[in-house]
Every structure is written in structure tokens, then in C-alpha cells.
Amino acid sequence: MPSPLCQTAGFWGTAWCLLLKTCSLMADVLRFGLQSIGSSLVALCTEASAGHLPEVHRTSWDFFRSKARLAESGESGHTELLEHVGFASAAWLFLVFSLWQVFSFFRRTLFRSPEVLFFPDASGKNRRHICFLLREARRKVWVAMFALTDDLLSDELLAAFKRGVDVKVIVDDEQCGMLGADAPKLLDAGVPLLIDSSPARMHHKFAIVDGCVLTGSFNWTKQASTTNWENVCILRDPSIVAPFANEFTSLWREFSGRSQDMPESPTSPARRKRDATPGKRR
């Protein structure tokens, strides 16, 4: 059985070992390339100068005798060498690509600094950035939002759900019955969505997107992004993301045991009649 590539234990020990071996392989490939170029240049210069010698001198020159021997056996050896070099080069490229993917993953999840977005944003850049994060989600999008009426953000939630991302949404019951609320649309599409039916307000405004959390004063409404003064902090520290995930899990478990009747829309006849009745206004 061949020996393992690295004998060093631990993640960082193995990473350091692979880095050293990668550098060694790069040095070998560079050395081989320089030697090949040097040999080719020497051969060209020697042949050019030997072309002016008489035939009798050529046959007695050690260079031509060695060249004749190499011509007989060099073809197979050269082919074998190219096979080994080709395999080593392919292995090296694969290793470099794998290390780059690992580095990119850690850079995205651990080493990126926090971001702060402010609204209103006339350019729409900050709103598009939130859409980009939702679009890039691969594992989960958990949203606890007091008001959810922004069709653009809701469409990104729906798109994430359709591509297999774990999407869960919690909204406040009264806001869920607002004109333009997107909760009914998400429910009709099959997105797991729970409504806070308690007397208290579900006033959270945060979303967990893979390894980061978006939190602040920002409701997912068109008015919040274009009119109100709002803020969103995007945090990637696992020690901060984990408590938000625990809070969402706790809320999901609590609201799952309650009635999930959808509040009536303000435009429904029953709601208009009740609101017009004296003493029934809320």
C-alpha cells in the first residue's frame, strides 16, 4: 500500500503539508521546464556550429555519438517522461483548484467583514444586494419579518424555495392581513410559512441566509427601501448567527402549535363590513 501524501495530523498540519508539497511540485515543474529549454538551446547552438565541420570530425565527436545512442532509445524514454510530467501537472492543477475552492469558501463564510446597509437608497443598490444574497443561498433562508410586502424580495424567496433551499418564513398576523402582503402568495406556492397568532407582536426583522444573518430596523417592504430611514447589518460571525438560528427555531416550534388561519385581506367584503360597524374598529 502506498504511503499517504501527508503524515502530519490535524487540519492545519495537513494544509501546511499540502502547501509545501505544492510548492515543491511547482519548483520541480519549473526546473524541468528550464532544463528542457536549456538543453534545446545547447543542442541548437551545437548543431549549428557542427554543421561547418567535415563529416569525419562529426563521427569522432562525443556529442554526435551520444546523440546517436539517444536517438535509438530516447523516443520511448521521452514518451514515458511526458506521461509522468503530464500526470504530475494534472495532479498539481487539481490540487491548486481544490485549495482555491476551500479558500474561497472560508473567505465567503468566515473572513468577510460585516456589512451595513442604509435606506432609503435611491440607487436601489442595497436592495439588490439583499436580493443577491438570497439568490446565492444554497442551504437555508429563514426569515422572521414583521411586515413582508416587497414583491421583489418575496420573489427571491420563492425562487430559492423552488431550487431546493430550506426556506421558512414567520410573519406577524396583523401585517399578514395588510393590503399587498406577500404571505398568501408564498403559502399558495407551498413555502413553509407560520403566522404569529398571539396577542403580542412578532416584531423581529431578521433573516438567516446560509452562514450570515441580516438584521436591523428594515422591514421587507417597498416603503422601507425607498422612503423610510432604515438599516440592515449583515453579520457572518458564527457566534452571532447561531443565537439568531436558535431564536428562529424556538419561534417556529412555538408557532407550529397554534392556529394558522390566514387573516382576512382589507379588501374582503367581510373585513370591510366589520370595520364599518361602530365600536368594532381596532
From TrEMBL:
Residues 1-27 form the signal peptide. Pfam families: PLDc_2 (PF13091). The keyword Signal applies. Keywords: Hydrolase, Lipid degradation, Lipid metabolism, Signal. InterPro entries: PLD-like_dom, PLD_domain, PLipase_D/transphosphatidylase. GO terms for molecular function: RNA endonuclease activity producing 5'-phosphomonoesters, hydrolytic mechanism. GO terms for biological process: lipid catabolic process. Residues 256-282 are annotated as: Disordered. Residues 198-224 form the PLD phosphodiesterase domain. Belongs to the phospholipase D family. MitoPLD/Zucchini subfamily. This is Mitochondrial cardiolipin hydrolase.
